[in-house]
Structure formats: structure tokens, C-alpha cells
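Technical annex B. To support the medicinal chemistry partners, we prepared a structural model of the target in complex with zinc ion, based solely on the information shown next.
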Amino acid sequence: MQQTITTYEYSTITQQVNHLASVERSVNDPQIRAVILATTLEQLTSLLPSADPLTETFLAGLQVEHLSRARATQLLETLIPMIMPFPQLTPKQLTKLFRKVKKLKQPAWPELKRYEMTYLGWNDGGNQKKYLVAPYHDHLIGIQGEFSPQTVKGVCAICQTIGNVALFLATTKSSGLGTYTKKGNYICRDSGQCNRQLTDPQALTDFLTVVQPKRN
Ligand SMILES: [Zn+2]
């Protein structure tokens, strides 16, 4: 099985399929439904590996009367083998990415859906900290910072979606002087939700450009 679908493409596919399922439930006009189905199929085809039996079964499965939310979810799961997941990192690899952190709280790997993750993010609620590991110029970087316990409604700097966000103050080394500056951004409290909403990796890259630790 060739893994060719990126995690953020999978987020796009999921959003499109869920939209289609909601149209099937709420729109009565069969002509409008047909137009939306055709548009959706065209967009999905451009994201899926062509001439693959999984793709064909998936697309055929969508072309039914009254696609239910449950059936949509089942169909989406059939694509998982084709997704390039976020790598599972060992405690040693994570420690290397966060050298300055003593007693790094580890992410709850068994609960994480790596096929949905463009980046890894987890909270250390007790210490009001958030940790992020994300691809940046072809390698993984670690970002840590203070994470406010106060949740507000707002636009997330990473997924660009309105939701439950909190202020993240990245701790970054500003220059060769050894001083640290703090840069604040509002980002999703729940990084799992954030990843499911992340369809364009450019905003993540822009965010990392601002908050990444500078090398000496
Ligand atoms: Zn987000």
C-alpha cells in the first residue's frame, strides 16, 4: 500500500465528505444535490491516488441516495492505509527536541490518531505548558511555551478556524545573548481538533517561523 495522502489533505477530504453528507440530509432539490455531489467528487479525485481500488471503492460509496453521517465516517476510515501518518517518536527523540525541559511530560500516544496529525501537540495542564512538534523545512522542530488555562472563542493561528483557543506564549531564545523573549499567539486548546481543522499547512509554517527558537 502506497501512502500518498498527507494528513492535511485527509482533513480536506473529511470536511468535503461531511459536507456532502449534510447536503444529502438537508437539501431536498435532487438537482442541487447532484451538482454538489459532482463538484465534491471532482475535488476528491484530485486528492486521491488514481487507478487505486481503494479510491474507486471510496468514490463509488459516496454516490448513493442519502449518504448518512455514519456511512461517511466508515468510508473515510477506508482511506487510512493511504495516509502518511505523523511519526511515532520515542521518549529519547522527544527529549532531544526539548533539551531545556526537565521531566518532559510525554504525549498520550495510544490516544493519538497519527493519520490526522500534521503536527504533534500536547498539554501539560498541571504546569500550564503546551508542547508542539512540527515539520519545518524538512525536519521536525520542538516548540514549548506557557499555555493559558483561560479558553476563549477566537481564530487559531495554526488551523485558521474559529474555536476554543487559548494564549500560547512560546519560549524562544531571541539571539546569541541568551535572553528569552515571549511571543503570544492564540491557538486551539485541543491539538487533535486543531489537526482535524488544518487543511493548509502554510499557516502552520508561518506560525513556526515566528515562534521557532533561533539557532546560535
Ligand atoms: Zn487550531
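Notes passed to the chemistry partners:
DSSP finds seven helices and six strands in the chain.
Residues 67 and 121 are 33 Å apart (CA to CA).
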